[in-house]
Specification:
This protein has 218 residues and is of the alpha+beta class. Helices cover 31% and strands 21% of the residues. It has 2 domains: 144 residues, no CATH class; 60 residues, no CATH class. Helix 1 crosses helix 3.
Amino acid sequence: MTDAQLELRTIKVKQLVDDYRSGRIVIPEFQREYVWRPSRAPKLVDSLYRGFPISSLLLWQGTDDARPRRRDPRPIRSSIMSWLIDGQQRVITLSRMMNGDEGIDIVFHPDHDEFSLANAATRNDRHWFRVAELLDEHSYRQLRRNLDGGSSADRREGKFEKLRRILDYEVPYVRMVNHSFDDCGPRVHPNQHSRRPVEKSRHRKCSGCSKTLWFHCG
């Protein structure tokens, strides 16, 4: 029998979302439903934008006794499929953020380096830009063509390019290889059946600046 292993790796945000949407990363049924409030999504994107840590994911490479929690995305059921044991709140938020749907439509103010959920005020203010459109290649090309000329346009484009680099942000993850189903259940998540949310984002002040660092889990 092959020994159980824990592999430490990283995955880019774009690849992570692609793998989730294509069914290569699947949420097992013993995980609770998506519970993050939409207001937490801008904080997650802000952390990525500034290069702050967003905590590691935990993936399990295995097939025995596990069933998916969601029908969509549909699991591909192959050797390259992994079960998402810890991190579903972050992964689902990132997937919805890139589409700007299901209540996660985030906007960006490049002059203030600020993120917010879209609302009536931001929709009527041309200084706010939808993150989903900035991350989409076709929409971004169109937006660049419509930018006013001058130094302010150059500064905004620089901020847009910085934002687009979150697609290449390397998210750390631990992959459980040759571990049993029991290793991924109650011993990993003793509160999995509790109705009270257990994943929370934590924050602390950066020692070198006045920024608040958000430590995301879930």
